[in-house]
Automatic annotation (TrEMBL):
InterPro entries with a match to the protein in the record: AAA+_ATPase, AAA_N_dom, At3g28540-like_C, ATPase_AAA_core, ATPase_AAA_CS, Mitochondrial_chaperone_BCS1, P-loop_NTPase
The keyword Ion transport is annotated on this UniProt entry: no
Keywords for the protein's UniProt record, in alphabetical order: ATP-binding, Magnesium, Nucleotide-binding
Name used for this protein in its record: AAA+ ATPase domain-containing protein
Organism: Stephania japonica
Cofactors that this protein relies on: Mg(2+)
Biological process according to GO: response to stress
Length: 499
């Protein structure tokens, strides 16, 4: 008799195993559970002994289940390039620049080849039943990728292919990354199987350092500082400091503090975490939030003077007043309000915040900027803003002529105009925020041209000056403006005076 080939032997063993499995499936319903488990274990051992394939699982959530595993995310990105070409069932999601990104659908399989070795990837999920699911909180699903390959490639796959997948996947993720704006919104559902306690949207703010209207020297200095920080990994390691930097932006409302944060995020391609401190219950919750902040990000606390002590203090004061007035008819409603006020007071303390910015917790994660904004720098506790915590203090002030030129270029495409001299003179004598200047430069109707916008601005500047110095200024200024206007456009000569 002719000896069987290796292929035939495998085929025979496979069909015998399949027959045994079928038989087992039929008889197991008549066998007690304990015994069934024992037999199943034996069958699995037998299969793994005869099966020449190795399987590696990469789960989406590891350990405490809060954070998505980096390995899973890298595999997801790595496979996404193959997915569009090879997979038959795909999932589509809106990605960067409103482009659809495709990824494998659940239970789909893909093949890949690496240095002559063929591997199979599949996306599977485990559904945890019995956790009391509802319509709004469905059963939690745990996804995982399975990688299958022949055991003769074990070394190649575990030592080289997986490293290649991680490296390529991370690089692809970086290329496709879209910036995100995170918030710890108070109405957020803190369900245990959400992957993060922050909620986010895509961050597509149009502001950049090119459009930011501040003194050009100050702008260059800030940009250089930011770029040096983002390239400073080795430097921070050398000096033994956590790779983070604090910025305090202060100045009157409408001087561009929030706009600058958007410009910083665009320059460095960082995510923004907008921390609403008053919505954080206590220091423990603060720590939880901060541990979740990813690298390459800006953690922002806006209006820091209103966020911490002061708000808590004001609420405390009101609660105390209401408690004192607890007599007669009002007692019941006051009691309710006191209770509400007391439960809503954030128990985050200054020391809790400082501990995070500067203490041991500050070293978790790297390449992070922390930005505080305030209108009243004098109200802040000096401990909070001392150098080392807030390394760079940036004052944003009223609109200078230099800053006005940036706005004129952004809003009207103008680099020079005869009216600029008059505006420069007025700007030296008055104070107007960039937000107000920008508003005056916006056309108020479709037929408004650049010159009308500039005249509007001059009028607004005159009004501000008049408030400071009295009406005599206006008369003098009108003469100057009308002279220029008459030269520019005789038909509009008396526009300002008529207005
Ligand atoms: N320096 C600036 N450069 C360009 N635009 C500016 C600047 N300052 C203000 N603006 C414009 O004014 C608007 C308000 O500015 P922004 O919100 O950045 O001010 P802010 O300093 O954060 O104010 P607040 O203290 O009230 O939060 C922005 O939408 C922006 O268009
Ligand atoms: Mg702001």
């Amino acid at each position: 008799m002719k000896p069987a080939t290796i292929g035939e032997t495998w085929a025979r063993m496979g069909s015998t195993l399949a027959g045994l499995m079928f038989l087992w499936a039929f008889i197991q319903q008549f066998i007690p559970y304990e015994f069934r488990r024992y037999v199943e274990k034996g069958i699995n051992r037998l299969i793994s002994f005869t099966n020449p394939y190795v399987k590696i699982s990469i789960h989406e959530h590891m350990g405490d289940g809060l954070k998505r595993s980096e390995a899973y995310i890298a595999v997801e990105s790595y496979l996404s390039t193959n997915t569009a070409r090879k997979a038959k069932r795909l999932k589509a999601e809106m990605g960067k620049n409103n482009k659809l990104t495709l990824s494998m659908d659940d239970y789909e399989k893909l093949t890949d080849e690496y240095q002559g070795a063929k591997v199979w990837w599949s996306l599977n999920k485990i559904i945890r039943s019995g956790t009391g699911s509802t319509f709004h909180n469905p059963e939690p699903e745990r996804r995982y990728y399975s990688l299958t390959f022949h055991k003769r490639y074990r070394e190649l796959i575990t030592e080289s292919y997986l490293e290649h997948v991680m490296k390529e996947g991370k690089a692809m993720k970086e290329r496709k990354r879209e910036r995100k704006l995170y918030t710890n919104s108070p109405g957020y559902n803190w369900s245990s199987y959400k992957s993060t306690i922050w909620s986010h949207i895509a961050f597509e703010h149009p502001a950049s350092f090119q459009t930011l209207a501040i003194n050009s020297k100050q702008k260059q200095e800030i940009m250089d500082d930011l770029v040096a920080f983002s390239n400073g990994k080795d430097y921070y390691a050398k000096i033994g400091k956590a790779w983070k930097r604090g910025y305090l932006l202060y100045g009157p409302p409408g001087t561009g503090k929030s706009t600058m944060i958007a410009a910083m995020a665009k320059l460095l391609d960082y995510d923004v975490y907008d921390l609403e401190l008053t919505a954080v219950k206590d220091n423990t919750e603060l720590r939880k939030l901060l541990v979740e902040v990813t690298n390459k990000s800006i953690l922002v606390i806006e209006d820091i003077d209103c966020s911490l002590d002061l708000t808590g203090q004001r609420k405390n004061d009101k609660a105390e007043r209401l408690t004192e007035a607890n007599v007669g008819e009002e007692k019941k409603s006051n009691d309710k309000e006191v209770k509400e006020l007391k439960t809503n007071i954030s128990k985050v303390t200054l020391s809790g915040l400082l501990n995070f910015i500067d203490g041991l917790w500050s070293s978790c994660g790297e390449e992070r900027l922390i930005v505080f904004t305030t209108n009243y720098v004098g109200k802040l506790d000096p401990a909070l803003i001392r150098r080392g915590r807030m390394d760079k203090h940036i004052k944003l002030s009223y609109c200078s002529f230099d800053a006005f030129k940036v706005l004129a270029k952004n809003y009207m495409g103008l680099e020079s105009h005869p009216l600029f001299d008059c505006i420069q003179q007025l700007m030296n004598e008055t104070k107007m925020t960039p937000a107000d200047v920008a508003e005056n430069l916006m056309p108020k109707s479709v037929c408004n041209d650049a010159e009308t916008c500039l005249l509007n601005l001059i009028q607004a500047l005159q009004e501000v000056k008049e408030e400071i110095e009295g009406p005599k200024v206006k008369e003098n200024q009108e003469v100057i403006v009308n002279d220029i206007s008459a030269k520019l456009n005789p038909s509009q000569t008396s526009k300002l005076v008529d207005d």
